[in-house]
Amino acid sequence: MLIDKYETPCKNAITSEKNESPCRFPAPASPRRSNMQQLIVSALLASLWTLCTGSGDWCYQTQFSCAHQCNAPEKWNQANSNCGGKSQSPINIVTRKTLKDERLTPFKFDNYQQTFSNPIKNNGHSVQVAVPQTRTISGGQLPTTYKAVQFHLHWGTNGGPGSEHTIDGEQYPMELHIVHMKQHYADLTTALADPEGVAVLGFFYERSNSANKKYEPIINALKSIKNTNGNTSLSSISLSQLIPAEQNLTSYYRYKGSLTTPGCTEAVIWTLFENPIPLSMEQLLAFSELKFQDGKSMVGTFRPVQPLNGRKVYRSGGAVMLASSTLLMLAITTALGFSQPN
Ligand SMILES: [Zn+2]
Question: Which regions span the lipid bilayer (predicted)?
Answer without folding.
Answer: 319-338
